[in-house]
Amino acid sequence: MSRIFAAALMLLIAPVAATDEQVLEALRSTVGSWEGELYYLDYQSGQRFGIPMQAAVESTPDGATVIRRLTWTDPGNLVHAVVLSTIDRDTGELVEAFFREGKGEYLRYEVTRADITSMTDWKIEFENDGTDADRPARIRISTQRDGDLLTSRKLVRFLADESGEFFERNGSELRLVEVAEQ
Q1: Opening angle at CA 36, ends 31 and 39, nearest 5
Q2: CA dihedral for 142, 16, 93, 21, sign (positive or negative)
Q3: Quick one: average pLDDT of 157-175?
């Protein structure tokens, strides 16, 4: 009897994997205007630098794609970038297209973690193999929403590194300044 009770209790408290639609819904919950800081680790010195950043986030009318228009100040330049994000309905992968200064990238990520308590309290992580500093690497993007705070971190693990530990390369901390209707 006690084993049955314990098993039933474990089912009640065990985390439930988020569906693809829930992950997309969490990403859509960021629709609005955000301001804060983009920070990065300088490749040469290892020192952290921060610069002002703004993000205007919207969703396509069908809700299938999240559009982020990013602006930040790179020393001497105002940079404009656009990121399109969706969940591939066939594979469950996060698919992103990134555009900046007449160049673009197409990226596919495996969603490796999706802890969604509500649309203002969640953490999603996704990974892929790519390069960082011209070296083969495993890239992990961790995005977390905690109320009006949106934090995104890029973590890197070089594939040739024996320790296999991820380190933080860059990220952003943004505060919601205006909610937009979806």
Answers
A1: 115
A2: negative
A3: 91
Per-residue pLDDT tens digits for 104-116 = 999 999 999 999 9
In angstroms, the CA 53 to CA 79 distance is 10
The one-character DSSP state at 16 is P
Nearest one of 79, 55, 93, 56 to 172, comparing CA atoms? 55
- Contact between 99 and 59 under an 8 Å Cβ cutoff? The reply is no
Q: Which residues lie closer than 8 Å to 124 by C-beta, 6 or more apart?
A: 18, 23, 26, 27, 111, 113, 114, 115, 116, 142, 143, 144
Q: What is the pTM of this model?
A: 0.86
Q: How many CB atoms lie within 10 A of CB 52?
A: 11
